[in-house]
Predict the 3D structure of the following.
Amino acid sequence: MLSDLELLLKLQVIDYDLGELERSKEYLPDMMENLNREIKAAQEKYDGATAELEQAGINQKNLELEIATKEAELQKFQQQMMSIKTNKEYDALVAEIDSVKEIISNKETELLETIDRVSTLEKEIVEFEEKSARTNDDNNRQLEILQEKIDSIGDKVSGKETERKDITAQIPRPILSTYERVRRGKGGTAVVVVKKRACGACYKALTPRRVQEIKKGDRIHTCEYCGCLLFWDEATSN
Ligand SMILES: [Zn+2]
């Protein structure tokens, strides 16, 4: 036969577990959402780089084509140089040549940058693809575990509630109602251990006489300041 105190401590553990199960209904779906968001983000990063690489490849081809066209134009102008007759014609042609050369030089700079970007993207894509696959595997494994946890909450809660009924049936009504009242007010913990000759919840000092009474453990004592149910534990009270 368990003492009232032992029953209360058992009850408190059950109530803590029930509270955790209740909280897990909130945080487990949040955790799942985060894992799904990570999967999506990794995939989007890979997709984004793939799309950019495709565009960069098109840009590269276009630039090469444009440069080739301008090179042909430049050659044509340079041939025209041979048959120049006047200074005015000469000046005009030189201006044309300079302008085409400048365009070619700009396009070549752009082409080099594009080629650089292509090679960076090609490396990144390999990385992003691996990261995405790994995130997918890891997170889906965790998602499966979390889903199982969510699915089992109902059974766990009813198990704990059955245990709770068994215990509360053995606790005298007035003690149980004190426990329930304090627990509601304190948001959980109602039975606390005496620590350094003080209440373990509000830390108000207890008189030596009260400590002695609590130590005896023959009945339930409550803290006169915070209402918590107090008990002595040889291992941790001193
Ligand atoms: Zn107290």
The mean pLDDT is 95. DSSP finds four helices and four strands in the chain.
